[in-house]
Design a protein that fits this description.
single chain; alpha+beta; two-stranded antiparallel sheet
């Protein structure tokens, strides 16, 4: 459909054409700051805060967080650390809970999938469909090697 046809169809209202954003593809940059494109893509994908059980679905007052901490390149950090694959929006309160507290662990498992573990041993999976209770599987060293999903614990994880 041509822009002129669409404008006529919409009774000559102002029409803005924007590019299609493919949320199944990732975009990354070499730097700490999250560029506007990455922020926008994460908001479109998650619709708000990625903290477990959060009800904040707003687009304002959210901090961009690196679930995997950013390491500057001059300290051995790899290129492309900031992007869809390492971005989650948190309210300032949730960001302050996660960042300085030892024992809080968040891992972005995929685009729009976040696994949270608390110092108390609780674990949750946050996806675009909500928060789900999970149990962590650990090796003998205590490292997380997987998770077990409870059938009655909420929305199914996204593949």
């Amino acid at each position: 459909m041509l822009l002129e046809q669409l404008t006529e169809l919409l009774d000559h209202r102002q029409v803005t054409v924007q590019p299609i954003i493919d949320l199944n593809q990732a975009h990354s940059v070499n730097g700490y700051e999250h560029p506007t494109l990455v922020k926008h893509r994460t908001l479109l994908r998650m619709l708000g805060d990625v903290f477990p059980h959060s009800t904040n679905t707003g687009y304002r007052r959210l901090d961009d967080d690196h679930p995997t901490p950013y390491v500057p390149p001059d300290r051995g950090g790899p290129p492309g650390q900031t992007g869809d694959h390492n971005d989650g929006h948190l309210t300032r309160t949730h960001h302050r809970v996660k960042t300085p507290k030892p024992g809080y662990d968040v891992c972005q498992l995929g685009l729009g999938v976040y696994r949270w573990a608390t110092p108390h041993g609780l674990a949750r999976l946050v996806t675009t469909t909500g928060t789900r209770r999970i149990k962590l599987m650990r090796n003998d060293d205590g490292q997380i090697i997987g998770e077990i999903y409870y059938p009655d614990s909420g929305p199914a994880p996204l593949a």
